[in-house]
Amino acid sequence: MLLPQIHPDILECGTDEAGRGCLAGPVTAAAVILPLGFKSELLDDSKKLSRKRRYQLRPIIEKHAIAYHVAHVMMEKIDEINILNASILAMHKAIAGLKIQPEHIAVDGNRFKPYNKISSTTVIKGDGKFLHIAAASVLAKTYRDDFMERIHQEYPDYGWVKNQGYPTKQHRDAIRKHGTTPYHRMTFKLLPDQLELDL
Question: Residues 72, 147: contact at Cβ < 8 Å?
């Protein structure tokens, strides 16, 4: 059973991102404030959950959350400021979108930049330790998957409906065959050196 939050008596949000290691698509973050009495034996780090379970949990999280918000940072911005800064920016945008601003921010991972003078704590593998971070991980993952499914309709050759933009063999083979799209992150190593074609 995950813990509710770090500080027991204040308004605290959890935040997490999805899509950091992808070759295409945005990095997506969510911020969630859950009521102190919220309990769920099903909620866990989104990476440990099946796709079906994540989508079952999303409306439950949205129904019970005091506040939640999801934000994308697009490929051009990722290429401009790098993926770490883009991930933090996405979390900042998600927090900024909350209808109530938290008194503390619980962040999945070990890197964060101060936001709006609100205190924060980074928690390595926090999505497997705290309910509000796990909830944020589920929202970030499912909303990003929705985005990738939409752009899959536009560029079906890359298999984004299955790989979500991650560097699978299928995805890299498609880049090799069809080239890049406007959704690819051009500062990322899209093809391994040993497989690049000699020109």
Answer: yes
The dihedral through the CA atoms of 51, 55, 61, 64 has a sign that is negative
**Residue 142 DSSP label:** H
Q: Is the pLDDT of residue 29 over 90?
A: yes
Residue ranges of the alpha helices (H) in the chain?
51-64, 75-81, 83-96, 131-154, 160-163, 169-178
Q: Write down the pLDDT at residue 193.
A: 65
Q: Which long-range contacts (CB under 8 A, 24 or more apart) does 87-92 make?
A: 87/17, 87/20, 87/27, 87/29, 88/112, 88/113, 90/17, 90/26, 90/27, 90/28, 90/29, 91/15, 91/16, 91/17, 91/29, 91/31, 91/115
Segment holding 15, helix H or strand E: strand 12-18
What is the CATH number that goes with domain 12-194? 3.30.420.10
Lookup: tokens for 26:
């945005």
Is pTM beyond 0.85? Reply is yes
Residues 68-97: tens digit of each pLDDT: 999 999 999 999 999 999 999 999 999 999
First to last CA, the chain: 55
Residues forming a β-bridge with 18: 28
- Domain positions in the chain: 12-194
- 188: pLDDT strictly greater than 70: yes
Residues 6+ apart with CB under 8 A from 184: 23, 24, 75, 175, 190
